[in-house]
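Fold it.
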Amino acid sequence: MTVTGSPRAARTVDEVIDARAVTTLFQPLVDLERREPVGYEALSRGPAGTPWQAPIALFEAAREVGRAAELDWICRVRAYEAALAAGLDDSMTLFVNIEPMALRTPCPDDLFPATVAAQSKLRVVTEITERAIAGDPSALLSTAAACRAIGWGVAFDDVGSDPASLALMPLVRPDVVKLDMGLLHDPHRAEVAHVVNAAIAYAERTGAVILAEGIETEEHLELARTMGATLGQGLLFGAPAPLPVPSETCGTRVPLLPADGVPPVSVPPRSPFEIVSGARPVLRTTKARLAPISRFLESKARDEVEPPVLLACFQEARFFTPAVAQRFADAATTAAFVAVLGVGLDERPASGVRGARLSEDDPLRGEWNVIVVGPYFAAALTARDLGAGGMTEAEQRFEYALTHDRELVLEAARALMHWISPA
């Protein structure tokens, strides 16, 4: 890659970005039983001696000039280049972060060749956070699918730093669950046991591995293992530094989940009713008789201990009445993520609620769906309007399917997420 300017001479963040003046340090990721490295996390730095050396300052400045997505691509590609230059092979796994704002931004032309080389030569796990899926669910799920399609993995970062991460995690189905360092450094908080149990339950259901961040002492190491971690990183095993040349190899690879573990989203995506009705009995009834089921599922979103994700389709804005809007606003005060879809809905149809406006001819217009996914609870009510006229709203007839099968609910939820635009 051609560097167009001197990092030390950079006077603005634009000059830093134009010069691609980003360097990468690597922190070891270790098998906790053997204490052997199994990979590295790439950590980006701006030019030394400038106000943008620290990554937080660098990205804040890039956001101010509208170039944060471009910077994110630079950071990832610099990590790939450094790993390739050090001879890192696919026995070691490279963990690379991606920022939400970059999910819909194509790779800059000058960085594209290194990206192609990385796809063919490196074993990469892309790290995401709950901010990414809450900010742009469709792009995040598409990015995760693209990673798996080329044999790369996905890690869910900072689990435990926000209760939302526990409910959003199964939607992404990460290969690696990274426990936030705060869990080790302040383990006596009441919520720590809740986070740890949810992470272990997810790992047990899926076969994912748990990685503990911030291991600095032998006590941290012992605690990490009691939290279900088999991998770890922290100063006990090594500070961020350049990769050794030639890079070491490893006999124990970070395991990745089978690529076919997440059903692919069709194009266009199947609707929740199509997904659930294809696997569960379909019955017919009136809207009045479905309403109590809907309200019960909505009430599960008000769980303060295990905040879930609540997704719903209301056909048209007129069915999202003030009373319904208030119920969803109440749910949003505790839920990890709440979104509603319908013709004529605003982007913020109620406080704390994400709205998605459907077109008049959208196939979802005929569906009434309520989907709830939490760390342990999962359910989906999926219904399709039979379109009979001459009835009151309460008499309106639907065919419907109800399921509590977790994998089926997750498939329906992922499909619905693809209709939700960026925040």
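Residues 1-7 have pLDDT under 50 and may be disordered.
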